[in-house]
Amino acid sequence: MTKMTKLVLVMTLAVATALAVTGCDGDQAPTAPPPPQPTAADAALPADLFLDKAPDGAQELAAAKKSAKAGDEIVLRGRVGGQEEPIAPNRAILTLLDSAIKTCNQMAGDTCKTPWDACCEPGEVLRANTATIQIVDADGRPLKTGLRGVHGIEPMKEVVIVGEVKGQEADTLVVDATGIYVKG
Q1: Are the beta carbons of 28 and 111 closer than 8 angstroms?
Q2: What are phi and psi of 45, to 5 degrees?
Q3: The whole model's pTM is what?
Q4: Under CATH, which number does the domain 3-182 receive?
């Protein structure tokens, strides 16, 4: 099994597991865990990773997934979300959700405590409308630092991602980000 196949398999299993255990809780008000304080590990992120303005030519995630292939340069627009924990705590990885997918807070009367997970959408819809975004080292491995709170990255935050498609198998698109614009 190649490294790419293993990576895609692990990411697919992680998303599938998160989707399987996630559910709406109508009795809870929307809350987000507090962002961790930036640490020395945040300095490990490339200095030019965060962009001051949104790049031109951004595509919605669902449209881009239809034609994306390994090696393609890509510019994606979406929201941080699509699962209960869309930002890995100790790796530079996040899940991007297509902006057209309704999150729980957009549904009248829904008080889901994690609206960014879009748990009211069927799993196949979420899989077709999410991507794994990662910031990698020179060896292609995700950096060992979290992204939550860095430059305002939080669940539900609108972002534009510039990067290279690492691969796509089935519904899983993996992008190595080289630029991130976080909408104010």
Answers
A1: yes
A2: -70, 145
A3: 0.77
A4: 2.40.50.200
